[in-house]
Amino acid sequence: MSGGLLEVERVAKSFAMGGLFGRSRFNAVDDVSFSVQAERPEILAIIGESGSGKTTLARMILNTLQPTSGVIRFRGEELSKARRGRRRLDFIRQVQPILQNPYEAFNPLKKVDRYLYASAVRLAGARSQKARGKLADAALQKVGLSLAEVKGRFPHELSGGQLQRTAIARALISSPALIVADEPVSMVDASLRMSIVNLFQRLRDELKVSILYITHDLATAYYISDRVIIMQKGKVVETGPAREILTHPHHPYSMLLKESVLSPDDVERGRLTLGPDGEATRRQPARNSA
Amino acid sequence: MLRILKDLLRYNREFALGAFLVLLIVAMSLASFFSPYPSGMQYVVPFDMPPSWTYPFGTNSRGQDVFWQLTFAIRNSLLFGITVAFLSRVLALAVGLISGYIGGMVDRILMSINDTFVVFPPFPILVLVYFIFKDHMSWALLAVAMASLGWPYDARLIRSVALSLRTREFTTQSLFSGMSTRQILVEEHLPYVLPIVFATTMNNINWSIGLEVTLSVIGFTNIETPTIGTMIYWANQHTALVAGVWWWIAFPVGLVIMTFIGLYLLSVSMNEYIDPRSRLSRMGGTA
Amino acid sequence: MPQSGRDNASADGPRPAAEGALALAVDNLRAYYLMHYFGVEREVRAVDDISLVVRRNEIYGIAGESSCGKTTFLKTIAAAVRPPLTVIGGSARYGFVDRDIYALSPAELSAIRWRRLSYITQGSMNVLNPVRRVRQSFVDFAFRHMKLNRRAFFAAVEQHLQRLRLTANVLDAYPHELSGGMKQRVTIALATICHPDFIIADEPTTALDVIVQKDVLAMIRDAQQQFGSSMLFVTHDMTVHANIADRLGIMYAGRLLEEAPTIEIFKNPMHPYTAHLVASLPRIGEQSRKESLSGAPPNLADPPKGCRFHPRCPLAMDVCREASPALTTLAPGHRVACYSASPLVKPSATAERASRAEPVGMVP
Hints:
The structure holds 3 protein chains of 3 kinds.
Chain A: E1 4-17, E2 24-37, E3 43-47, H1 54-61, E4 69-74, E5 77-78, H2 85-94, E6 95-98, H3 113-122, H4 129-142, H5 147-150, H6 160-172, E7 178-182, H7 190-206, E8 210-215, H8 218-224, E9 227-232, E10 235-241, H9 242-247, H10 252-260, E11 270-274, E12 280-286
Parallel strand pairs in A: 3-8, 3-9, 6-7, 7-8
Antiparallel strand pairs in A: 1-2, 1-4, 4-5, 9-10, 11-12
Chain B: H1 2-11, H2 13-31, H3 66-102, H4 104-119, H5 122-133, H6 139-150, H7 152-166, H8 169-176, H9 181-218, H10 228-237, H11 240-243, H12 246-274, H13 276-283
Helix pairs in contact in B: 1-2, 2-3, 2-12, 3-4, 3-6, 3-7, 3-9, 3-10, 3-12, 4-7, 5-6, 7-9, 9-10, 9-12, 10-12
Chain C: E1 22-37, E2 40-55, E3 59-63, H1 70-77, E4 85-94, H2 106-112, E5 117-120, H3 134-146, H4 150-163, H5 180-192, E6 198-202, H6 210-227, E7 230-234, H7 238-244, E8 247-252, E9 255-261, H8 262-267, H9 272-279, H10 318-322, E10 328-331, E11 334-336
Parallel strand pairs in C: 3-7, 3-8, 5-6, 6-7
Antiparallel strand pairs in C: 1-2, 1-4, 8-9, 9-11, 10-11
Helix pairs in contact in C: 5-6
C-alpha cells in the first residue's frame, strides 16, 4: 500500500483535429505529474485559464476520459482497470465530482432528490425507502440543508447556492475520499459564494475529504487551498504551498496571473489606461470620483 | 394527466379541433361492432342507392351499405396505422437512444444500417414484397414490412437529441450517482425525446395509412378485408365515378382526410405542450 | 428628430462635455414580463421602480446578482422591449432625444442606433458576423452613419483602431481567427467608431480570461475618456466595478438599494446588502474568514412585501416588512434605500403600486 491517495504520473492527453488530410494533434494536457497524500486531507487548487487543460485533467482523474499516455492511480490502483462493473462502482464511491453549473447539474424536468436517493441506493447500500431518506438527510445536514427543504423540488425552485449544496451533499453520500470540484463557485451568486467555499474547508477539516479545487480565481484559491498547481497550455508551470506561491510567484506566467487579478482595493489605485503596447497600466495620481 | 388534457382542451384550439375529429373517427371505428351486416357479405341491401335517411352514406354496387362498410374500413385502417407506428417507434427509439448514448463503433454500425434503410424507396420495396409473398401476404406481414421502412429518419432525430443529452452535466451527475445506462436512458433522457416520438407517431400513422391506401387501391393487399384503400379499389373496379355512384368514393376519401387532419392537429398541439422548453416556462424555470 | 450640436463622427477629438447635462435620465421605470401560458398567468417584476441619472462623460456601474433584473433593465434602456416584456410605467430618456426611448418609431431608432447609442455585449459573436471579415462588420454597422466615401471611411477606421492600440491588420481577419480577448477589443472599437453619446456595456469582460480582462477594461476606460461617451456598465463582479465605474448602483430584486461614487460604496457602504457584498470579497494576502448571506435572492414573480431584502437582512425591523424604503440622499451623491441606515429614510410612495397597469409606449 503506497501512501498516495491519488498519483498522477506523466499524464498527457492529445486530441486530433482536422479531416482526412492534414490531421494535426493538439496537446490539451502535456506531461503533468503530481500526487495527493492519503494521511492528511488537503485542498489542492489547480489554477489555469481557459485552454490550460485543467478541465481535461479533471475528467481524466474522474476516469471519464482516458489519457493518451501516462498513468493515474487511485490508492495504488490504476484507473484504467476501474472502468466497468463493480470496480467502477467502487471507484466512484471514493471519487466524486462537483460540476460548474449548478443549474445544469440537475435534470430540469426531474425532481432534485432523485439523485440523492439513487446515490444512497447504489453507492451507499440503502435498502429501504426509510434508509435512503435518512442517508440523504444526513448528507444534506452536512452542507447546511435538510431533506425537508429539498424534497420534491424541481431545480428551478431552488437558488444556485442551494443547488450547488445539494450537489455537494449528493457527492458526500458515499463518503468519498476525494472530491474533484471543477469551477464549483464561478456560477454561484456572489452573496452565496463564500458559504460554499467555506463549506469546502469544513469538508476537509471535519469530514477528512481531500478536494481538488479547479478554478481560475486566484483569490478564492488563496483563501482555502493548502497547495497550488498553476497550469498553462497543458503544462504545470509552478507548484507549491498556496499562500507562498500566490504571494510570491516565481514563474513569469504565475506573476502575470497574479498581476492581472482585480481587487476591491483597486478603487484607491490609479485609473486604468492603455499603455503604448496595448497593455493595461495605471495612471497616477488616483482618479477623482464623479 | 387529466388536468393537462383539460388545460389543452380549454386553451388550445388546434387541440380541441384535432381531438374532436379524432374522436369522431374513433366513434366510427367503434360503431363497426354494432354493424347489422357482417363486413364480408355482399348484396345485403339494394345497390347503387344514393345517400338517404335509410342509407345515410348510400349503398355501393356490391350491395353493401357504405356507412357500415366505412365503419369497418376506418377501424381496420386505423388499427393498421397504429400498429405500424408503434412498431417503428420502438425500433427508432431503441436504435436512436443506444446509438446516441453509447457512440463509438456501435454508433457507426447502427447509423450505417440506418442510412441504408433511409435510401430505400418504400413504395417500390413494398410492391416487391407483395410480389414475393403473393399468396402468403397478410396484414401482419405488411405491417412488419412497413415498420422496417418507417424507422430510420426518426432514429436519427432521436440520436441527435441523445447525443446532446450525453454531454449535459446532469448526465455526468447521474453516472456518478451510480445509475445504470438503462436507467439513465429511460428516466433521464426519454422525457426529452418524447416530443419527437409523439410528433413522429402521428406522422407515421398518417404515412402508413396513406401507403396502405395506395397499395390497396392498386390491389396489392388483401382486398377482401375492408379498409379505406380497398373500398376505393372496389369502387374503381365497378367504375363508380363513371356510373355516377360518387358516394362510394367521396365518403371514404372524406373520412380519411378527416383522419389525417385530426391527427396532424393533435400532434402539433400536444407537441408544443410536451416540449421541455415550453413545459419549463410554464413551471417557471428555464430549460 | 433628435437634435444635437454635434457634428458627424468623421471629426476627431472629443467633444467638450457640457457641465451638468444628463446623458440618461430614468424615472420610476417599471418593466415586467407578463406571461400567459395554458391558463397560467405569471408576472415577473424584473424592473420595479428604478430611478437614476447618468451624467455626461461618466461610467455608471450597475452591480447585482443573477435575477436582480439588470439584464431586463438594459433591454428597456436599449429599446429592445419585446413581448412578454412590457414597460408598465415610468420613463427613460437620453440627452440626445426629446422623448422616451421606447416611444420612438423604428425609423427613429434606426437613426440613433450605433450613431448615438451603441452597446458592448458579453459574447462578441453577437456582434461580429462569423462568416465575414472584421472590416465587413465595420461597414455593416458604421458606414451609413458616418457619411464618408469608402476610402475616407476606412482611413477613419484605421485611425480609430490606432487610438485604441489595435493594429490595422485585425480588419482582415475572420472572427474565429482572433482570440477571445482580441474579439472583445474589436467589438469595443466597433461600438465606439461613431463616437456615440451613450454606450451600454453588458458583462463585457465576464467571459474573458483573467489576464486579458485588465487590458480590455483599460481599453474601455480609454475609449470612454477619449470620445467623451457616457456608459452604463453592468456586471455582477464587484472587483470590475472597482476598476471601471465612476459611480455605482447596487440592484437587488428589481430595485436600486444604494447608489454612490464607487470609492464610497467600497469604503463606506450604508446598505447591509452592499456592506456584505464588499466584505465578502476574498483578496490575496488576506486570510480572515469571509461570511455569506443566508437565504437566496427572491423570486421576481412573487417578491416579498416591503423591502425586498428583508428576509435575508440581519438588521430587519418591523417597518421593513411593511413598506419598501425610498431611495434617499444621505450624503453628497450617496443614496440609500434602507430604514436602518438613517431615520431620514421613509417608505416609498411609488413602490407599492398595483401591478397590472396599462402598458406604456411600446415599440410596435
